[in-house]
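User: Fold this one for me? It's O-methyltransferase.
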Amino acid sequence: MSSRSMAPDSVLAVPNNEYGAEDTRGGEEKIWKFTHAIADAVVLRTAIELGIADIIHSHGGPTSLSDLSSRLPLNSVDAGRLFRLMRYLVHLGLFTQVEYSGSDAEGVRDIPEPRYGLGTLGRKYLVRESEECMVPLVLAFTEQNAMKIWHYVKEALVPGGPTPSERAFGVTVWEEFASNPEKSREFDEAMACDARISTTALVRECGDTFAGIRSIVDVGGGNGATMLAVSKAFPHINCTAFDLPHVVDASPRLPGIALAKGDMFESIPAADAVLLKRVLHNWGDDDCLKILKRCKEALPPAGKGGGGKVIIIEYALDDRSHDNGMKLLMDMTMLVWLGGKERSEAEWKKLILGAGYSGYKIKPISALQSVIEAYP
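Assistant: Here's what I get for O-methyltransferase.
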């Protein structure tokens, strides 16, 4: 736990935004960018749907505009319009562009034709063969109904009403997934993308977190990808992925990973440790208290195996930080999707101690999230 203090009359200068509160230079351009921010998301989705990164990757190097055009899954392509699309994707830093001019058989130089390669972001996150591929995540959050959710932000301010996602889908997100196995599978794949990054950091940087643990259950464990990574890093730990019945029924059987069906609001399988990876931010405080109490019940009693622990992987907001933008964006995302929230350290302390735990500690890791250990 950390503590901070301030002199009573001191004034804390908190950066209000990433653009500079007092700087209005270029303000018109910024407002235009805000207004058209959806363009970046949709253009990115278009690049994925056309398989542009995979085409360039399979080509083995920079690909000419004409070759790229011939390999797109479209009946016909306007070269000028494709050039404009690629120009914007290059501007976004996803691809690179180099000019190339060859010669014909008589030595007459051709008109220069742009050739496109993979930028660092495109190579790392948009090629489906990449271990860090984020294609499923992009597709899940840029789907038409998912984009429609953002049109109901103001309705999210009304207490007790439907969430923006309920207004967009007509049902809750959980009901939508329960009735639509394909959409549920797509969402699980999207979450697996995010899980790979945070789980890699967890097992690489937090070996002490798993010291003395013989069994662990991942609540909301989806397809078991997180438990598989933990099992490979710590083979002595018995790993269980726990989720709703329709999720478990659709999940593949992974070697060494047990699957358990149930409802975390009712009971959680017993284990030395319970993992909650990006679960609590889905819920309001009252529901989080219920979940944390069920987790506490699943742990061994104090004095028998040390009482166990709950390992929480979540954002920890810090209003004094200059690097809070992504966390604040995720807070808005949770507001409109599920009515949940991202939390500050003070809010985590209140929640954990309020659920009857004796203490906690927060450890930043190289992922955007932090590791929060709660002790019964």
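One thing worth pointing out: The two ends are 16 Å apart (CA to CA).
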